[in-house]
Design goal:
Elements lengths: L1 E12 L6 E12 L3 E5 L6 H8 L7 E6 L2 E2 L5 H11 E5 L10 H13 L5 H10 L15 H13 L5 E5 L7 H17 L3 E5 L3 H5 L3 E6 L2 E5 L1
Parallel strand pairs: 3-8, 3-9, 6-7, 7-8
Antiparallel strand pairs: 1-2, 1-4, 4-5, 9-10
Helix pairs in contact: 3-5, 5-6
């Protein structure tokens, strides 16, 4: 069953002579529970594609469907709620708030969405599974890169998103921590039945995924 359906999307920045085609007539689908890597040279359209899948940007043409919901047709207010409840984000730079400790960083999206009805049991369980429970009172500056990325992953998981979008999640990590994060992402696919789309420059990490989508000059040139 498809959780992602990308239908002939084109993304153009600028107009007339200054128009730049970041993506051109891209189509593909991703099944529920798949772990897909998106690879390509800088400027190939990887980040643009991830932004469209996450509803952070809108396509110039075409449709992006997540769980049969068409992001291209949603109002901004609808998109904000849908994104918070259905899509988890993991970034290369972790995007943790420095004024919050690890626990509060993880709880923040749940707090924003549920108010006082935060699922504390889920937060506790995820932190323990990712090996960061003992770091719950530490602030981001007190954590290593690998620990910060685990906090970011936990933050994405506690909302039970059907889709996780990861933008170079191992880019700032050494080889050991990078491998640990990849193994955790693969475990998430199986343990939580979540779908992951990951942008990466690392060929070794891409080969660990179920499928690889190769972009070049804004077009899908190969799937393997």
């Amino acid at each position: 069953m498809n959780i992602i359906s990308v239908q002939n999307i084109t993304k153009v920045y600028g107009e007339n002579e200054g128009a730049v085609y970041a993506l051109s007539n891209v189509s593909f689908s991703v099944d529920r529970g798949e772990f897909v890597a998106v690879v390509g040279a800088s400027g190939s359209g990887k980040s643009t594609l991830l932004n469209l899948l996450g509803g952070l940007d809108t396509a110039t043409q075409g449709n992006v469907l997540i769980s049969n919901s068409n992001l291209s047709k949603m109002k901004k207010s609808e998109l904000t709620v849908f994104r918070r409840r259905n899509i988890g984000f993991v970034f290369q730079n972790y995007s943790l708030l420095p004024i919050l400790n690890a626990y509060d960083n993880i709880a923040l999206p749940n707090t924003l969405d549920k108010g006082g009805n935060v699922n504390l049991n889920k937060i506790n369980r995820v932190m323990k599974e990712l090996g960061i429970w003992e770091k719950r009172k530490k602030y981001p500056e007190e954590l290593s890169g690998g620990q910060q990325q685990r906090v970011a992953l936990a933050r994405a998981l506690v909302m039970n998103p059907s889709l996780i979008l990861a933008d170079e999640p191992t880019g700032n990590l050494d080889s050991k921590n990078a491998m640990d994060v990849m193994l955790m992402l693969k475990t998430c696919c199986k343990s939580y039945q979540q779908t992951i789309v990951m942008v990466t420059h690392n060929e070794e990490m891409a080969q660990m995924c179920d499928r690889i989508i190769c972009l070049s000059d804004g077009k899908v040139v190969k799937e393997e």
